[in-house]
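Justification of resources, computational component.

The compute hours requested in this renewal are based largely on the per-chain cost of generating structure records like the one below. Each record pairs the submitted sequence with a full structure-token output. That output is archived, and it is also reused by downstream analysis tasks.
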Amino acid sequence: MTFLNPAVLLGLAAIAIPILIHLFHRRKARPVEWGAMRFLLSSLASRTRRILLEELLLMVLRCLLIVLLVMAVARLFVPARSIVPWPIVLPALLSAAVLAAVGAVMWARRLVRTVLLGLAALLVGVAVFASSAEYLFQGSQWTPVGGERDIAIIIDGSMSMTLTVEGRPNFQRAVEDAAVVLDSCQAGDTVSLILAGPAPRAPVVAQTSDHEQVASALATLQPAGGSMEPLAALDVAAGALAEGHSAAKRIVLITDGQDIGWDVQNEARWQFLEGSFAQLPAPPEVVCRVLPMPRRYNNAAIGGIAFSRRVVGTDRPAGIDVKVMNCGTETVSRSAVRLTIDGARTFEQPVGPIAPQAAERVRYDVQFDAPGPHVVEARLLAADDMPVDDADLRVVNVLERLPVLLVDGSPSTRPLEGATSFMEIALAPAEGEDRPPDGGGAAFGRYLVEPTVVPITGVRDILDFTQYRLVVLADVSQLPPPVSRALAFFVARGGGLLVAPGGNADPAFYNAWTSAEGGRVAPCSLDGRLEVGEDPARLGLHTFTHPALTLLAEEGRSDAGDATIEAYWRLAVDEQDGSVRVGGMLDDGSPFLVERKLGEGYVAMTALGLGRRDSNLPTLKCFVPFVHELVYYLSAPMVADANVRAGFPVAFDLLPRVEPVAAEGEYAAQGEAVIVAPSGQRRALALAGAGEARRAAFAGTCEPGLYRLVLPPDMGGPEGGRTWKDGSFPFVVLREPEESRLSLLTTADFERVGRHVDLFPARTTDEMRAALVGDIPGAELWKHLALCALVTLLGEVAVARWITIQRRSHVAEEISFGVEAVDPRSLRAVLEKRPALQDETTAGAAKP
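The structure output for this chain reads:
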């Protein structure tokens, strides 16, 4: 706390005026001896205490009035980065005024007077010293900016900025504050403009002195959606400032203070940004304008759409879970969630009520009637304060066929005696049988999975596994080196591999199997085979954590508890290998399923074969879903995921179109590729490669929502896939669900960030502007002091009037003796004529 006009503090000496007036009136009173006063002594003793309190109250009010007026004229100021708390300066001066007033009233008592006036002088000295230190510190910290400056303006374009606060969206406030920054710039200042979202976008990326260009970009700016990545935006701002030629650098970040994306605990990322700032001539000051946020709000949001499995076909319904979150402070009343497929088929289910910060899930079972991409939209049918998060999108690529290669290490001519017999039946029990679809559509002629059984002797000729999604080694002893290398390469490119070792498995081969890079292929080592005999082992269902084992572990719905295992391999797992995890165990603590991440694909190994020789598991009802879940899980990496995180680039391998061109649809010009953003903006893509193999990369995934890849008629999409209903290839950029929760940065968060960058949080527009131009940001309190002075003045007038009325000093009273008033002159004349009476009266007055 300091004063903008410190010289005016000399006016504190005016506090002596009411004190001197009080002392002057005290000396003016002279005692008059009057014999009759002895009858009033008892009354005067009580009145003296009251008069002393009345004088004390009046003196305190008059001294406080002078001090308040002096501080108001001196312009009491509280800096935003104050080193002297206000309870030091303001209470010290007010307390000094009170002590001086009490000392004046108690002037007759020398010791009390000396102590009180000494304390008052000490308090005034402390206040003056503290405010002077604050004044010098602020002057050194906020040197007025002279000359030209380079300024980078960053506007938070996240989804939460669309929230309406006090009748206006915060994004509109941010644009208005950015205009204030622009107005405060001098003619030679250069400015750049950055919209911060999942990935920063620069409408004005280069430093320019054309302020009209920046103002035009501000007028057309729209929120990016999703969550903000402040570190990426600050890094882009540092790059823009590096192009400027001024020594003074400033970054103005205007945000609502959401903590999503700040990553304040990640010291490494902030140190990297600190290094980027260090490359500038001088580290820039970051002025962070924090916009107001509501304390209470109503907001329900779609928190995500999840499919029961990643591999979806037309052969059976797929489960779709929609998460509904209550991110507000009020209970969400009962509403409904509408699920829409390709904008045509709709399903609706009720939801709620939902308590604050709670969530519910709504389940839909949907069977898709055609292969290819399908757009799924979930929309909450309720009104709240942030409607932008009431809907969410996903794209699912429905497969027509899923080819799986089953390598049988112990084939048999007898029914159900081969190592792959039960798996083949479980994957395709009635191939060729037409089945009516669930909910209409075309007839289904086959199952999704197409198993191909090859004996171990036939796999020697297979060196290219790319035509399959998954390879199963069932009771295979070993593979020839060329085949094992080709299979490891297939997994590293995203393929799946399931090893179900039986009695023929060769531990030496699996334990030494390595990829071309030298890494192990098998997720564990085969450490001896056990023949259980009369005491069979069982599955430890409570240990099943792998996604493919979820259905087996469902109590009351699965008969996996009836499985008896007569023979199995002990699997030795390297606990130091971070790419390996155990998905489930047997009841004796031995691993049942172990998985390794190898490149882009997965390798899974079971402890036993999946034929009838090792257990009765293939004869149980749970075997069919178990096999299907394993196949879907291991095949998933090869299924193109059309849902990408915001800010991450996507790439498309454009192969020749394998399906005939429809008469209707949207197509690009010959040889071109176009991305249509959610806002409808079209962006051309640069194509790499030549001939039939072309590749397109897109890095502008900064706006969450539905994108469409539009290609010419002769060019196919990813892997030559099928198109959507309009002839394009859709994909979705995901938004961050936690952006709806409005979790704000704390003071400790700003302090942690301030260790790496020169950060100043500005709570108001005036603080932001003051920090930008070099003024001392803060708040003046002269208006509050002036109001207090007015109240004090009114109080002094009221107290003085009340005392006057109580003392009746404004009324002239007549004194009468007896019933009739007697003239003093007549009384004197009577007494002179009657000496005896006079002597009698005098004698009576002299008695004690």
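Confidence is low (pLDDT under 50) at residues 431-445, 837-848. The first helix runs from residue 16 to 28.
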